[in-house]
Amino acid sequence: MAKKDDPRKIVANNKKARHDYVIEDVFEAGLVLSGTEVKALRMGRASLTDGYANIDRGEAWLENVHIPAYFQGTWNNHAPRRRRKLLLHREEILRLESKSREKGHTLIPLSLYFLDGRAKVEIALARGKKEYDKRQTLREQQDMREAQRAMRQKEMLG
After folding, report:
1. What is the pLDDT at residue 78?
2. How far apart are the first and last CA of the chain?
């Protein structure tokens, strides 16, 4: 995930996405935001839980992402779950559009962060996991943890 020397300031992560989906490809996209949305994000307030992206008439949109209203905002405060435009290259949009139309594929946000003062979102082309796939993944993670624990104990005793 994020390393110590990583210049990104992470605002929100979608932890459940890697559990519920098989991530096939990841893209970084800019976001078109209003002023109060940027201020709310800088305070570290956002939720990607129910968010998704879609392609509509050649434009990428991020929907259902919750950025709460800025508490010091006035009458020009933003709507918390409004539709936000994603900034991607034309080739990326075309590739995402063709892949997301395949059966079982969707576009989901993985993380929302600031990079060099600009708000970015990491979106993934993903395929939904079945329930048995989720159990298998959890079992593999648990086995890996147990193996690491055994290796550490062997080194300590060794």
Report:
1. 66
2. 31
